[in-house]
Amino acid sequence: MKTAIGLQLKGLAKSYGPVEAVRGVDLSVFEGEFLTVLGPSGSGKTTVLRLIAGFTLPTAGQIMLQGRDVSRMTPAERGIGMVFQHYALFPHMTVAENIAYGLKMRGWPAPKRETRVREMQDLVGLHGMEKRLPRELSGGQQQRVALTRALAFEPTLLLMDEPLGALDRELRIRMAGELRRIHRELGTTVMYVTHDREEAMTLSDRVAIMHQGLIDAVGSPHELFSVPPTRFVASFFGGHNLLPASLTTQGANGHVRVRCLGQDVEATCGTDLTGARNLWVVVPALAVKLGRGTSPSLNIDATVAETLYVGGSVQVTCDIAGTGRLLANLSVEDGLGLEVGSRIELLVRSDDLVAVAREADPANPAASPAIEEVDDLAKDI
Q: Which of 194, 219, 244 is the last residue of a domain?
């Protein structure tokens, strides 16, 4: 278990005039950890990354890197590596020259540079490509060059800003596996920014979810998906359904009894809900089954609104009278024969239900246009 803190953000804030892009972020990243900052466009995640890199200065707060306060240092003084979405390779330099560039700027002697370049090429499978220019490489190969250039000088911290975003889906999946392998071999502390929850779940030791300039939750992918602590985490990270409910009893060991769709059911909760009257019951689409169950299952009467065959399963969108819509990810056997407009019965086991407070969520879950604009501008700084 990792315990030494490599990077610590204390009350980190950044304002652009009246717009607060980052509003007091506290976050610790352990040495050797792969932590992903996940959030929608405009949540402030790119701004946080650029504050850590030193490309812009904070309005308030501290950035501690291995115990040093680097908040006002230049990017070069911080010793941080960074990989961008569009790689930023020098088009007139070969693969070897791109990888060696940072080493040359740091005064590494030529023989040591050449040895390190060979080591990095072998690490990512670029052996024999040292004389190629970026335009002669595929997107995945360019991404590997950018990664090795950032890692070559053995940075204290590696920052990655959506580096897989420009790749097609199949290549993204392959490169995600490569990133995990490289991280295991080198043990570099990594802070990775993305809006793609699949990337976050695949790559990360832990995930920090940002929302409207703040950290909404931090935890392992399994923890955040299985027991989301807030409505935003459930809807954005998990992609789960939300049903309105009210608290009946605050139980022990992270369990509560709630009233949902006119039924009294037990649910898990990630936070203390004492005093919270109005709740959301989180219903994972994968947990919804066709049929009717006995207590303590939650039974749902629904009308089929749409079906979508996705290969190994069928996504069924259902209307629930007086409540809204619910997405069920059913087996092909159960879902393929359903007709739009037909009435069906669904059930969810009590063990799969999670309760979160409704009052704890912002009135407007979407990022404000002003913050979104600032976050997009920050990418070009």
A: 219
